[in-house]
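for the recovery benchmark. tokens below, seq after
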């Protein structure tokens, strides 16, 4: 869950035990998180540990988030059921698809068979677009 200040590109967000948030900048995808800091919302005493993180987006940056279905893929050959355990594979799919969600999805299904629900969302920071709205 997040909010972007349109004028500054500052992203405020929380990640409640979901796959890490991806930054796509200049053709390279990376995670903006390195550790789990918040359990799922609704777990007792979780409110005491709520931390709203922030990340400064630059013009042209894209944030990509998705459900765990993005990683839960059957990648084994016939007769050899192997489930992907490498979360960095998703970064490769984002790069191959240039953060275009339709293309990212196509790259995911080329890589493996989706085993879980899959939701993808992206936000691109274009400060020039917000100026034209004023």
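predicted aa per position
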């Amino acid at each position: 869950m997040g909010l972007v200040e349109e004028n500054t590109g500052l992203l405020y967000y929380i990640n409640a035990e979901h796959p890490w948030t991806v930054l796509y900048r200049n053709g390279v995808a990376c995670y903006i998180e390195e550790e789990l800091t918040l359990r799922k919302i609704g777990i007792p005493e979780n409110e005491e540990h709520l931390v709203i993180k922030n990340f400064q987006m630059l013009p042209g940056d894209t944030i990509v988030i998705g459900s765990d279905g993005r990683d839960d893929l059957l990648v084994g050959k016939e007769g050899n059921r192997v489930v992907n355990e490498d979360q960095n594979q998703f970064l490769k799919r984002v790069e191959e698809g240039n953060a275009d969600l339709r293309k990212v999805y196509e790259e995911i299904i080329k890589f493996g068979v989706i085993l879980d629900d899959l939701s993808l969302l992206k936000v691109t920071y274009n400060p020039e677009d917000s100026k034209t709205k004023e």
